[in-house]
Amino acid sequence: MDIDDVVRQIASTAEGDAVVSNTGPLAVISANLDHIAHFGTDGRWFDTLGDRLCTDDSGNAQWLTLLDGAPLVAEANRLTGRSWPRLAGSDLIGPLLDEAEARGTVVGFLGGTRLIQRLLSRNLTRTRPALIVGGLWSPDRSALTDPEVCRDLAESIKAAQVQLLVVGLGKPRQELWIAEYGPLTGANVLLAFGAVVDFLAGSIGRAPHWASARGLEWVWRLALEPRRLARRYLIDDPPSYFHMRRNSSLSSAADGSIQREGHRETVHFSDEGTPDGSFVAIGDPADVVVCIVTYNSSALLDPLVAGLRGEARNLRLRVVVAENDSSDGTLEALSKYPDIIVVPTGGNLGYAAGINAARRFADRDEAILVLNPDVRVEPGAIRSMYRRLVRSGAGIVVPQLLESDGSVYPSLRREPTILNALGDAILGRRLPNRPWWLSGTDYDPESYRHPHRFQWATGAALLVRADLAEQLGDWDEQFFLYSEEVDYFRRARAAGAGLWFEPTARVTHWRGGSGVSPELNALMAVNRIRYARKYHSKPYASGYHAVVVLSEALRWAKSDRRGVLRTVLDDCTWDALPGPTASANAAQVLERFPRGAVIIPAHNEAAVIGRTLAPLASLAASGRIELIVACNGCTDSTADTAADFDGITVIEVEEASKTAALNTADAHASLWPRVYLDADITISPAALGMMLDRLERGDVLAARPAFRYNSSGASFMVRSYYRARRRLPSTKQALWGAGVYGLTEAGHARFGQFPSVTADDLLVERALAGVQKVIVNTPPVSVQTPRTPESLMSILTRNYRGNAELDSNGPGEVVRKAHTRQTLRELLASIRGPATAFDAIVYAYFTLRARSKASQRPVRGEAEAWERDESSRHQ
C-alpha cells in the first residue's frame, strides 16, 4: 500500500467503521531491521504477536505490519521488481492526526517522560487545536513489568474512550504491551510507533531529507544518541540484515489488502479438579500426568506434593514417580501418599530413563508435566501452563523458575553453537548484555516478563502436549544426566512444535537435587560434546569439543572442576563417568517386569553359570521370564548347577555346538521377545527389563544392552588393545561385543534357524543390516576381558575364524573388506597423541596376527578345541 491507502484504512478502523466484530483492535507495526532482530524467526519474540498474550477473553489484537526501514524497502524492490514506498511511523503520524482531527476521533498517547508529554501537549494545543486528546499516559518503565499496574493503565485508557492510541514505549516493549494489554484499552487502533512521541514533542529532530532519501537516517540518529542506539545499529541490526537477505521470499497473499488472522476460539476452563486435591488413579481420565524422577529425594517430597495438591483442585492430575533406587528412604517416604503411582526402576537409570518409565502411565490425550523433585509448584502454575498450551497451540510450555530467595533464575537457553560456547567459555556469567550469539543463556530481564518462544530451557519443569509427547517418543537415554532436555527440545522444534515460556506460571527450584561434584561437572561437559556429535558433522563437533576443552582449561584450578579437563580430553575415561547402575534389590522390578524369554547356551560353564543365573533366578521363579539353559556337549556339572535354581529349564544337547544349543532352546521357548545371553555374562534384572521393554514395543527388531570392558587384572598389552577398541565407534554401535543381544519374533524370522557358524552375533548383525536396531542405555553389562595376551589371541582367532565362515559365501567377502576399511579409518581417527598411537599399534598387531592364524588350516585335534578365554573364568 502507499501512504494514502494506509492512512485511509487506519483512520476508518479507528473511527469504528472497519472494526470486525470479536476480532479485537488493529495493532500497527512500523517494521525495520530492529523489528526483525526482535520478532524475526531468529528473534527472542518470534511468533509472539501472532498469538494471544492477553490472558483475558477480551479479544486478540490483529496486526498490520508496515514496510519502514530502508533495507526492507530495498529488499522488497529486489524481490518484486517494482518500487515500494517507505511507510515510516514518523511520516504517517502527521496525516493520521489530520484525519483524526477531521473525523473527531479520540486520540491518546502512551509513552515518553512527563517532561516530553508536557511538551507534546503544548505542541498539539498550538498546532492541532481541534484534535480530541483523550489523555496522555507516562508510566515508569519499572511499572510496565507489573501486570496489575498495566491492567489499571489499560482500564484508565478505556475509561477515556480513546479510539486511536499512539504507543511509544520503544521496541519491543511497545509491541509486547499491545499484545498483552491492548485489547483491554478499548481502542480500535494502537500504533506501535516508537519515537513518534519524541518527534511530536520536538525533543528529537527528524533526519534531514537528504539522509532519509539515501537510507542514512540511522546514521543521523546514531550521531544524536550514540549511547542508546549503538548496540542496535552496530551489533543487533547487521545479523538481521543478513538473515533477511538469506530468508526473504514473496508472500502468497500480496494483493495489498490487510490480511487478518482468524479469531482464535476462546477456551473455557471448567475447574475439573478434585476438591480435596487428591490425584486421579490409573484408568481415570486426567488433564495432566505429572512425571517425577526421584533419587535420594526424601527431604524434597513434602513441599513438592503440597504444591501439586493445590493444583489438583483445578486440574485433574495423575502423579507418577519413577524411583531411581534411592538409599535415603525415598521409597518409604512415598508410601505416605497412596494416590501417587510409584514405579521402582530397578536401579539408578538416570533422569531420561526415569522420565521414560513414568510417561508410560499417560494416555494419548493427556499432557505430560515433567518435574524435578527439587521444585515447589506455586499456586496456579500448572493451570497457567495448561492454558498457554491450549490457547497458543504450543507443543511445550515452561514456567518461570524462581530461586529459593524468590529471584528469577535465568532458565532460558539458546541452541548450543561454537560461538555461544566460546563466549561462555571466555566470559562465563560476565557481561550478561553481550550479543546473543556469544551467550548460551538469555540473561535479559525483559525475556522473563512476557510469554514468548524459546529454543530450550532448564528442564526442571516442562509441560508437553499429549500428541507431541506421543510423536517424540522416549527421551534419549544416552544422556544419563544433563543435556537430555536440550536434545528433547531440539527434537520438538524439528517436529515443528512451538516452545513457549509462560511467566505467570511460577515454580521455585531449589537446584539441589543432583548435587555438585567434579564427577557431575565432568559428565555435564562430556554430554555437551555427545550432543554436538549427535547433531553435527565431525569437523563441527571437533570444534565444539575444542571449545569445551578451552572452557575447562580456564577453570581447572576450581575445586569442583578437578579432573574435568583430563576427562574431556580422553574419550576412554567417559565410561567411568556416572551412568546407569542396577539395584541390588532385584525384587523392586518384579511387579511390572515385561515378559520374554532368556536363552543361555553353555558348554562346560560350571565355574561361571551360577553367577550368571543368580540375578535372574527370582524372575524365572516368579514366571515373569522363561529362562532356558541349553547345555551343549557338557562334561562338567553345568547342568546340575543350573538345575539348582527354581524356575529354570535345563536342556542337554549332545553336540558341542553353540548354534545347536540356540536352535534347541528356541524350539522349547514360547515367549517373545528373546534375549540370547552368553554363559559368562552377568546381566542385571534392570538391564534385562529395559531390553525386553524396548523390544516389546515392536518398532525395532533387535537390541543389545550397554556394556563396559572390565580389564582389571589384565596385562598391559591387553589393556592397551581394549583401550583402542573402546575408541572405535563401530564397537559402540554393533550388536556384537556384549555377549548378549535380543530379538523380536520378526527379527528372528529374518534368518530362521541359527546356521552352523561360530559367530552367531555377527550373523544376526548382518542378517538385520539396514533394519532398525538399537543399543539400549541400560546399566552396563560387564564384559571381562582376557588377562593374558595368549588368551586374547585365542578368542580373537576364534572370532576371525567365525567371521571367515560368514565371509566365505557370496557378498560376505565384500562386507568383510568394507568392514576392514571402516575399522582402519576409525583406528587412524582415534590417534590423538603418542599414547593413543601406541594403543592403535597394539590393536593392529593383535588383529593382523589373529586374522593370520584364523586363515591357517588347524592341525590335527585343534579343530575340536573350544577356543575361549580361560584366564578370566573363575567364580
Quick structural overview:
With 875 residues, this protein is an alpha/beta fold. The chain is 40% helix and 16% strand.
| Secondary structure: helix percent | 40-55%
CATH class of the largest domain: Alpha Beta
Classify the fold: give the CATH topology of the largest domain. Spore Coat Polysaccharide Biosynthesis Protein SpsA, Chain A
**Main beta sheet, described?**
9 strands, mixed
Low-confidence parts, pLDDT < 50 over ≥5 residues?
255-270, 859-864
Report the β-strand fraction as a percent range: 15-25%
How many discrete structural domains? 4
According to DSSP, the number of beta strands is 26
- Tell me the span between the first and last alpha carbons: 86 Å
**In angstroms, what is the radius of gyration?**
34 Å
Average pLDDT score: 87
The CATH architecture of the largest domain is: Alpha-Beta Complex
Overall SS class: alpha/beta
Structure report:
With 875 residues, the protein is an alpha/beta fold. It folds into four domains: 3-247, AF0625-like (Rossmann fold, 3-Layer(aba) Sandwich); 288-417 and 441-509, Spore Coat Polysaccharide Biosynthesis Protein SpsA, Chain A, CATH 3.90.550; 518-579, no CATH class; 582-855, Spore Coat Polysaccharide Biosynthesis Protein SpsA, Chain A (Alpha-Beta Complex), CATH 3.90.550. It is built from 33 helices and 26 strands. Strands 7, 8, 9, 11, 12, 13, 15, 17 and 18 form a nine-stranded mixed beta sheet that branches. A seven-stranded mixed beta sheet has the order 22-21-20-23-25-24-26, with helices on both faces. The chain is elongated. The termini are far apart. Mean pLDDT is 87; it is low at 255-270 and 859-864.
